[in-house]
Amino acid sequence: MDGLWQERDLPFGSNSVQHGTAVFEGIRMYTTPAGPVLFRLDAHLERLLDSAALLGIPHAYDLAALRRHVRDAAAGSGLDNAYVRPVLYTREPRLGVNLRDFHFTLGTEIWALPPDDTPSRPVRVTVSPWRRPSQLTFPVRAKATGTYVVSALARTRAAADGFDDAIQLDPNSGRVAESTIANVFLVRDGRLVTPWLEDSVLAGITRDTVLTLAGDLGIETAEAPVQPGELLAADEVFLTGTASGLVSVAGLDTHTYAAGRPVTDALSRAYREAVLGDGPHRPSWLTPVSRP
Ligand code: PMP
Question: What is the pLDDT of residues 52-67, one digit of tens each?
Answer without folding.
Answer: 999 999 999 999 999 9
